[in-house]
């Protein structure tokens, strides 16, 4: 099981556990109608059986063990409610140590500053816990909220990659935002194979 746990003032970010089943399903069930095109909105959770959930835990565990992706859940520290999920996905190890981050908060928890807390924690997970040198976030050109959250957390706009992400059958342009480990953290926690110590 992935041992990464990162805490902020209001959030706990960690891998899902078997005991999180009810909170996980409840988080998705509590979503309201979609607020924009980046929001899945209300979701029929009837497919989220305990058996399905056990399979999800197994897939996430295997992805973490293979250093492919750390898919983590986001909980409120105050009551343990599941309010979203996030990931650090390995793009390249070796001499680049590059990963991509992604995050989603359930829409009932938007506009509270939780996204800013979450991205700060996600950067610490990627740079410190997992030993990456560089993190990237790929952002749609019409997503100003994500741009603001990234900028508040020390990410910088590098540029636009044209025809970069396939969305609904169309290759779309994305901004690339990046953050690198500070000089004193560049080699902290990374062993010769790129894994965290």
Give a brief rundown of this model.
This protein has about 200 residues and is of the alpha+beta class. The chain contains four helices and eight strands; from the N terminus they run ββααβββαβαββ. It is globular and about 40 Å long.
Largest sheet: 8 strands, mixed
Question: Can you tell me the overall shape?
Answer: globular
* Helical coverage, percent range: 25-40%
Q: Averaging pLDDT over every residue, what do you get? A: 92
Class by alpha and beta content? alpha+beta
Taken in chain order, the helices and strands follow as EEHHEEEHEHEE
Main β-sheet, spatial strand arrangement: 1-2-3-4-5-6-8-7
Count of helix runs:
4
First-residue to last-residue Cα separation:
16 Å
Low-confidence stretches are 185-197
Secondary structure: number of strands: 8
Approximate strand percentage: 25-35%
Determine Rg (CA atoms, Å). 17 Å
């Amino acid at each position: 099981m992935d041992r990464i746990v990162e805490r902020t003032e209001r959030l706990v970010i960690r891998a899902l556990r078997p005991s999180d089943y009810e909170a996980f399903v409840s988080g998705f069930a509590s979503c309201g109608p979609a607020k924009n095109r980046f929001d899945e909105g209300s979701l029929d959770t009837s497919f989220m059986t305990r058996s399905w959930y056990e399979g999800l835990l197994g897939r996430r565990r295997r992805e973490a063990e293979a250093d492919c992706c750390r898919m983590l859940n986001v909980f409120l520290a105050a009551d343990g409610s599941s309010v979203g999920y996030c990931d650090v996905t390995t793009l390249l190890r070796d001499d680049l140590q590059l990963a991509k981050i992604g995050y989603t908060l359930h829409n009932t928890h938007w506009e509270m500053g939780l996204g800013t807390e979450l991205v700060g924690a996600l950067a610490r997970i990627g740079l410190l816990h997992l030993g990456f040198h560089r993190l990237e976030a790929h952002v749609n050109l019409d997503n100003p909220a994500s741009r603001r959250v990234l900028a508040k957390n020390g990410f910088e706009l590098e540029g636009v990659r044209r025809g970069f992400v396939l969305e609904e059958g169309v290759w779309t342009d994305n901004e690339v935002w990046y953050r690198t480990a500070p000089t004193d953290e560049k080699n902290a926690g990374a062993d010769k194979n790129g894994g965290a110590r």
